[in-house]
Amino acid sequence: MNIILLSGGSGTRLWPLSNDARSKQFLKLLPTNEQDVKESMIQRVVRQLKEAGIDAPLTVATGAGQHDSVTAQLGEEADVVVEPMRRDTFPAICLACEYLSKVKGCPDDEVVVVMPCDPFTEDGYFKAIKRMGTGVTDNAADLIVMGITPTYPSAKYGYILPSHDMTTGGIVRIERFVEKPSVADAEKLIDAGALWNGGVFAFRLGFVREIGRKYVDAATYEETVRKFDQYPKISFDYEVAEKAKSVGMVRFTGTWKDLGTWNTLTDELETKEYGNVVTDGTSENTHVFNELGLPLLCLGTKDLVIAASPDGILVSEKRKSENIKQLAEKLKRRPMYEERRWGTYVVIDFVEFDDGFSALTKRLTLNPGCAISYQRHTHRDEIWTFIDGDGEIVIDGERQAIGRGDTVVIKKGQMHTLRANSLLTFIEVQTGHQLVEEDIERFPYDWE
Amino acid sequence: MNIILLSGGSGTRLWPLSNDARSKQFLKLLPTNEQDVKESMIQRVVRQLKEAGIDAPLTVATGAGQHDSVTAQLGEEADVVVEPMRRDTFPAICLACEYLSKVKGCPDDEVVVVMPCDPFTEDGYFKAIKRMGTGVTDNAADLIVMGITPTYPSAKYGYILPSHDMTTGGIVRIERFVEKPSVADAEKLIDAGALWNGGVFAFRLGFVREIGRKYVDAATYEETVRKFDQYPKISFDYEVAEKAKSVGMVRFTGTWKDLGTWNTLTDELETKEYGNVVTDGTSENTHVFNELGLPLLCLGTKDLVIAASPDGILVSEKRKSENIKQLAEKLKRRPMYEERRWGTYVVIDFVEFDDGFSALTKRLTLNPGCAISYQRHTHRDEIWTFIDGDGEIVIDGERQAIGRGDTVVIKKGQMHTLRANSLLTFIEVQTGHQLVEEDIERFPYDWE
To answer: What is the per-residue pLDDT for B437?
Structure first.
């Protein structure tokens, strides 16, 4: 069995802690059994899979913006399939299936389970996944979906109406799918026995590959990537689940939540204060997240969520935090904080002058043994002042040791790279007329 | 007539907008007649003095930490007397009186009015000041104080109990002063006709100088400054007002407030959002002040004051904001933002490593024609990257032009100064083991 975790979302609903590079599934806020140790939603799901005894290889399908975050949080525990552009779940799952087949050499009868990377759920959910895998192995159906016992008539979810038929392996066949109905219709559906569609699918690899080949028929994985835009922009539910002739369902009853808003997320957090937060002890039902270097003082507030990050500051009545999406979209700037495969950076200052000349100042931390790519910029100078650790820098082919107290000026057009021996921290001042991440050309460099 | 404005206060009650260098009287938040133009409390008082037709020379008595703020906000409109250390109002007023006598050459029969620099008050207050000055000129009493008609039995103010005697000039004599009574006693005092003591005093220069000479008898102003610590640490009320034999009072009835807490200050502010603030329009009675470069999003809050500055972030229920003082004292760090005589700086980042080595990053703006002192540091390097404007730099005697895109490294021990031709903005990275403002030696430099 192989598991594909879908990692998507642009993450404005948990602004300012989430941004395009750090969607909600990467926020390390959830409690673990160890005190003071927090984990992210994706880390929690991966841990729960293991604890349920599911040791299938994991493949995360995601966009380029999240590649570094997945690697930083899961390390060797998962392969990463990077979609060349965000389309929808059907293309993403096709690409991951081609990866399993062509890169990992899985046979077409391999059992595959696709699931979201961030449900907040419990052990029974993973037991249901095991039953789904067994069902496919037993050829109970071409596609087995998870039906989740609904707790209220939500208009946000899709519904699955089971039939009264059973397969030989005790898997119930389904009658039909209903996409996001009105609340009134949802009530009727629930009365008729419908369940929520949790977006978990089990099938044999060849079943989905055959459908995908209608759009992209490629000899190599690289060719699939190149032709990725030929897959239709459509969900897996519409393109596969609703059209499939033989669909079974496994039911799961238990805790299952999308911690996608501040209101739902904070309900699950035992810790009320994260980061440098001081209170007078009179606040009620207030969660405070402070990722800035500044102290945050909170006095006598009630029912608030307060979050501060390099992207911005939110102060919101908890129920009103559902309204954040539209406003946060307007506030969207370049990411001010990112977790990358080589370390992290935070933007500490940005100024733009009337004539468009700008200065962007960052503090960067490079992990020991990690290097950035050999690169050059057309429009900006970079001034690096090293403040901790040591490493090596290469400028236009010339290599030298650097460490605390050194300052290096890299002019536009100069080729440069940097490698950390120990944890390396430096302040970077970028200056120029176009300070965008895209102003970069990358070249190979052989450190050995 | 001469006016002495007392400018004190360490400013933690309006944290994080106020700090040791920027006390509440310097916050430019108050509405003016011009739209979008705001003024500070001290600017408002100086404007009101002028509008009331009081054109007496102004002298501000303050501590070294506020010298640059006073100069930046009042410019040529006031002289500044800098107390070598903060003691109390009696020493501060003695020093200012010696300054008027020895530096400005005022005769001992000069009429002087001492007043706080930041009452939030109205025209009648300044009319009362004029009557106090006239009273002293007419020799109605040695000391004339302002009595303010109380609006409630406050335990925070001193009280003045007038007698039934009148001087020839129609100034009422006073019976006694009562320092901060209990609320119950305040009620009784008010019933007996007592008024609030507004801390406004009028007298002839020689009257106070004679009392001061009991402690410090100096030939020059410089000698007075040197012997400043020989003045007792006592208030002017205790040392002068309560002991004076001939004291008169002028009554003022009208608006008179200390906008010293967020709750009282925000009551007077028409504008509810300052800086980069976005709201969904559903907040009630919420004031938001954002001095950071980040956007601040506020959704559905009620009765809050929210303030963000480089010193920290406050989110407080308005009435609870009275409790800020103690907590803000704990949060006190080096000032993260300062208005100086040469321009402004903001600290954008600070990191300290386990071994005590630190990096402090600032963005500085130097006003055209202004220069910093010729200086050197023993414990820190400074790396300057110029991002806008142009000027001249001197390092170890060597002078050169600098401007946008230039980076200069100043090693510990190197003498350096900088002058702006146009508005000059630069990023400074300080690195070293002791990053304190006190690590500085200043030398003369002749730019001509």
So the answer is: 80
Cβ of A295 within 8 Å of Cβ of B312? The answer is yes
- For residue B100, give both structure tokens: 């008027």
Q: Tell me, what's the pLDDT at B164?
A: 87
Q: Is B299 on the interface with A (CB under 8 A)?
A: yes
Hey, is the C-beta of A107 within 8 angstroms of any chain B C-beta? no
The DSSP bridge partners found for residue A111 are: A204
B264 pLDDT more than 70: yes
* Contact residues on chain B for A361, CB-CB shorter than 8 A: 348-349, 361, 363, 427
Residue B386 CA to residue A186 CA, distance in Å, equals 62
Closest approach of B295 to chain A, Cα-based (Å) = 5
> Distance (Å, rounded) from C-alpha A203 to C-alpha A136?
6
Question: How big is the CA angle at B147 (ends B321 and B151), to the nearest 5 degrees?
Answer: 45
Average pLDDT over residues A309-318: 93
- A16-37 pLDDT tens trace: 998 777 789 999 999 888 888 8
Q: How confident is the model at residue B10 (pLDDT cuts 50, 70, 90)?
A: low
Quick one: pLDDT band at residue B326, thresholds 50, 70, 90?
confident
The model's confidence at residue A311, banded by pLDDT at 50, 70 and 90, is confident
Helix runs in B103-259, H state only: 123-137, 183-191, 205-212, 221-226, 236
Instruction: Collect all residues of chain A within an 8 Å Cβ-Cβ radius of residue B333.
Output: 295
Rg (CA), chain A: 24
Residue B439 CB burial class (10 angstroms; 0-12, 13-18, ≥19): middle
Residue B169 has pLDDT above 80, yes or no: no
Cβ–Cβ under 8 Å, residues B293 and A349: yes
Strands (E), B167-311: 172-178, 195-204, 247-252, 256-257, 273-275, 277-279, 287-290, 296-299, 304-309
**Residue A130, CA distances (Å) to A1, A148, A253, B192 in order:** 10, 15, 15, 86
The predicted model gives B189-199 an average pLDDT of 96
DSSP A22-90: S-GGG---EE-SSTT-EE-HHHHHHHHHHHTT----EEEEEEHHHHHHHHHHHGGGEEEEEESS---HH
> Which three-class secondary structure state does DSSP give residue A402?
strand
The set of residues, in sequence order, having a beta carbon less than 8 Å from that of B355 and lying 6+ positions away, is: none
Query: What is the nearest CA distance from A374 to chain B, expressed in angstroms?
Result: 23
**Closest of B15, B24, B54 to residue B42, by C-alpha:** B24
What's the gap between Cα A303 and its chain centre?
A: 28
Contacts with A385 from chain B: Cβ below 8 Å: 359, 383, 429, 431
3-state secondary structure of A304: strand
Q: What is the mean pLDDT of residues A400-410?
A: 95
B435 touches chain A (CB under 8 A): no
- Shortest Cα–Cα distance, B102 to chain A (Å): 46
B280: contact with A, CB 8 A cutoff: yes
Q: Do B349 and A330 touch (CB under 8 A)?
A: no
Mean pLDDT of B121-141: 96
Mean pLDDT for chain A overall: 93
Residues on chain A touching B298 (C-beta within 8 angstroms): 314-316
Global ipTM = 0.80
Q: Residue A218 carries which side chain, given as an amino acid letter?
A: A
Q: Do B315 and A308 touch (CB under 8 A)?
A: no
Q: What integer pLDDT is reported at residue A211 of this predicted model?
A: 98
Tokens for A171, please give them: 């898997």
Nearest CB to B327 within list A278, A301, A328: A278
Q: Which of A67, A10, A9, A74 is nearest to A39 (CA)?
A: A74
Whether the CB-CB separation of A348 and A362 falls below 8 Å is answered with yes
Give the pLDDT confidence score for residue A293 in this predicted structure.
80
Q: Which of residues 355-384 of B touch A (CB under 8 A)?
A: 357, 359, 361, 363, 381, 383
Q: What SS3 class is residue B153?
A: coil
